[in-house]
Amino acid sequence: MTTRQFFQSKQAGHFDYTLRKQTGGPGQYARVIGYVEACDENFIFENRITGGTIPTEFIKSCEQGFRDATSAGVLAGYPVVGVKVVLTGGDFHPNDSNDRAFRFAACQAFYQGMGTVDAVIIEPIMDVRVTIPNDCIGSVQGDLMKRRGMLQNMNSDGKETELTVQVPLSEMFGYATQLRSLTSGKGNFSMTPNNYQPVPAHVQAALIAKA
């Protein structure tokens, strides 16, 4: 599980990007038009080209360009999920258009469309189960709360207590060492993936500033 960028806007983000390069030799030309919108899958590409505004042989290159762009989105470079790209139009040149040009143009068009809509950074949340001596509950629970943990359940058998806490994966680095220190080596834990949740606004701001 890795930190990602999630498309959450209710509005579509429109793009109209033209690549036009002339260097004296063969040029590079491609234009792609369409929009990006939210969806329930990681990525969907829909081709709505009519009238041959983009020749069929370049559609796959467009799709690949859009997929390339999702690997590093506009927010701190995190991969983008939950986005549908609809290609509605474009233009080509009989001599200067090629697969490379359309792939590049589609990639830039994706960034253009994403730059006009709302998106958030989401992070993996883990189910963390911690088993500790009863006399360590306060210090261990306090440490987990500092790690943005949310207590889900607590069970005790009189000698030991099991805490079930949901904690962002990014906050769990170094936890094994810290738990040993807090419990004099008597505590243990396990964690499994649960889901993804938006990071708090101040964390997102810090991630973007650091990128």
Write up what this structure looks like.
There is one protein chain. The protein contains five helices and ten strands, in the order ββββαββαβαββαβα. The chain folds into two domains: 4-117, Ribosomal Protein S5, domain 2 (2-Layer Sandwich), CATH 3.30.230.10; 124-195, Alpha-Beta Plaits, CATH 3.30.70. The model has no long low-confidence stretch (mean pLDDT 91). Helices cover 27% and strands 39% of the residues. The protein starts with a strand and ends with a helix. The radius of gyration is 24 Å and the shape is elongated.
Compile the SSE list and pairings:
Layout: E1 4-7, E2 13-21, E3 28-38, E4 43-47, H1 59-70, E5 80-81, E6 83-91, H2 99-114, E7 119-133, H3 137-146, E8 150-156, E9 160-168, H4 175-183, E10 188-198, H5 201-210
Parallel strand pairs: 1-5, 4-6
Antiparallel strand pairs: 1-7, 2-3, 3-6, 7-9, 7-10, 8-9
In short:
This protein is 27% helix and 39% strand.
What key attributes describe this structure?
2 domains, 39% strand, alpha+beta, 211 residues, Ribosomal Protein S5, domain 2
Q: pLDDT below 50 for ≥5 consecutive residues: which ranges?
A: none
Structural class: alpha+beta
Shape verdict? elongated
On the 0-100 scale, what is the average pLDDT?
A: 91
* N-end to C-end Cα span: 19 Å
Number of helices: 5
Using the coordinates above, name the CATH class of the largest domain: Alpha Beta
Instruction: Supply Rg.
Output: 24 Å
Q: What is the CATH third-level topology name of the largest domain?
A: Ribosomal Protein S5, domain 2
| Number of separate domains | 2
User: In CATH terms, what is the architecture of the largest domain?
Assistant: 2-Layer Sandwich
Tell how many strands the DSSP assignment holds.
10
What is the H/E string?
EEEEHEEHEHEEHEH
How helix-rich are the residues, as a percent range? 25-40%
User: Beta-strand percentage?
Assistant: 35-45%
Question: Mind summarizing the main beta sheet?
Answer: 6 strands, mixed
